[in-house]
Amino acid sequence: MVIGYGVRLKVWGDYACFTRPEMKVERVSYDVMTPSAARGILEAIYWKPAICWKIDRIHVLNPIRFDNIRRNEVLGKIPAGTVKSALRGREVSLYQDATESRVQRASLLLRDVCYCIEAHFELTEKAGPEDTVEKHYNIALRRMKKGQCFHHPYFGCREFPAQFAFIEGEIPASCYTGDQDLGIMLYDIDFADDMKAIFFRAQMVDGVIDVQKCLNGGVFS
After folding, report:
1. I need a labelling partner for 147 at 20 to 30 A (CA). Which of 94, 116, 122, 179 fits?
2. At 4, is the pLDDT very low, low, confident or very high (cuts 50, 70, 90)?
3. Strand, coil or helix: 39
4. How far apart are CA 53 and CA 110, in angstroms?
5. What pLDDT does 3 receive?
6. Is residue 179 part of a domain?
7. Residue 165, domain extent
8. pTM of the predicted model, to two decimals?
């Protein structure tokens, strides 16, 4: 497996919600961005089947602050079988009335978030002879510097957009010093293994979560 060059991306926004999966009804965010959320931001900017982004470190630049809000949500969704029937040409109703299935739920969100993502990509088995590390690195670099993306990246929920900028100089200093145990955090979802959730113990040192170092300490499922 060929490893690509690293990138450093600053991301920020007004609100974020990196939902803890153990919460069933109300949404409660983790204290910081999860690695899977960071990867989602990078994939929104540049992704191809030939590459796979790996998160190395997450820098927490702003103080961790929470806000309580209430939001209107829709209870259900259109069944997948109904959508498949529509694709086969059958006459089905894809209409969903939000006024009939609306419910108000509380959410514990992060506010005024700002992070720096350090990451690299690896070439996958789908990479062809024309898929070189230099080619994909230069494309990703150009898109990050120009602010281009396939769809606008977001912090956990689509209603919380994330702004981003490529970091060429020094990474801004974090507001945190010392060691802080953030507890068990979601690392990713293994879709190849029946959508199994993978967790790790997040340790923040001087405002930096070294994801790869934390993973070496063990993962849970």
Report:
1. 122
2. low
3. helix
4. 25
5. 66
6. no
7. 7-73+102-173
8. 0.87
Number of domains in the chain: 1
DSSP state of 191: G
- Classify residue 82: in a domain, yes or no: no
Which two tokens mark 216? 């070496």
In a domain, 91, yes or no: no
**Rounded to the nearest 5°, which phi and psi values hold at 15?**
-140, 160
The verdict on residue 69 lying in a domain is yes
Which of 205, 171, 203 lies closest to 185, judged by CA? 203
* Listed residue (209, 219, 150) closest to 189, CA to CA: 219
The enclosing domain of 146 has a CATH number of 3.30.70.2660
Residue 17 is encoded by which pair of tokens?
């919600």
User: What is the model's pLDDT at position 85?
Assistant: 85
The residues near 89 (Cβ < 8 Å, ≥ 6 apart) are none
